Amino acid sequence: MKNIILGLAMMAISTSTFAQQPPPPPRPPMDQGPRGGRFGRRGDMGPNKEKIEMFKVDFFTKKLSLTTAEAELFWPVYEAHRKTAKEIMDNKSNDEIQVQEAMLAARKKFKADLKPVLKTDERVNDALRIDREFLQEIRQEMMRRKGFPA
Questions:
Q1: Is 13 domain-assigned?
Q2: Angle at 63 (CA atoms; ends 62, 68), nearest 5 degrees
Q3: Would the pTM of this model clear 0.70, i.e. be above it?
Q4: What integer pLDDT is reported at residue 12 of this predicted model?
Q5: Where in the sequence is the domain holding 136, given as residue range(s)?
Q6: Do the Cβ atoms of 92 and 99 come closer than 8 Å?
Q7: 149 pLDDT above the threshold of 80
Q8: Between 95 and 12, the higher pLDDT residue
Q9: What is the number of domains present in the chain?
């Protein structure tokens, strides 16, 4: 009798340890963008875009030590460059070299346009470097928020 009870108890314990876990609760549906992201059409991020823009202005202003007068001249030149770069990426051809040449030409024009605003070659080069640093900061933050190690 003891053996039967002991056997049944062992079966109950072993069955419960190998039982399946209940499935996780379903996720709420998200608005899927054209690339499968969480945002609306064409990457519209709503209030997050405004936060990124504010962070960008603060980032550049601090790193370049822009005065108010310099900032008023800098931002239209910067936005024109971003618009040109976006157009190049949107209209890119199958020829990777042509895309890279177009981007290089756009960066050279950006550098030439910044020279009257920032006055010295050193500050212009700093602006180009800071632009790259800003994009790296944004990428790292996105990866961190998605749960990837930094």
A1: no
A2: 50
A3: no
A4: 67
A5: 67-150
A6: yes
A7: no
A8: 95
A9: 1
